Amino acid sequence: MSAADRRIQITESIAAETGIDEAMIERLVRAFYARIREDAVLGPIFEARITDWEPHLKRMCAFWSSVTLLTGRYSGQPMRVHAPLPVDARHFDRWLQLFAETAAEVCPPAAAEHFVFRARKIAESLELGIAVGKGVMLKRGERFLLDPA
Q1: CATH value at residue 28
Q2: Is the pTM of this model over 0.85?
């Protein structure tokens, strides 16, 4: 079996187990970023950097398709994009809260669980990468704060 055939088989298996498909991904992405844009903490960070939302939403649909269904639709470097942002553990916690709430509203339970599991891993990775990029080596269980008060 070729790598492409294996990828298709894995994608079909995840879709069958969770109910996730491209239409669900798009509904989740659009609902989530609508919340982000209205959020007092995260909205300004996004609005300062995104002037045309439609290309961003399409890119995020491709990203979540790749992350959840392993479709390979996304190509990019998320760490490079996120590293310069003025964000820390508090921002990632808020992002995860909004994402989990949105997933619970938009998706059936198995799909929401799959999305949120992946989102947590992504947030952990980005937070760690941002910390390292700012010269902070986190110990196990430690969180990155821009201004630890």
Answers
A1: 1.10.490.10
A2: yes
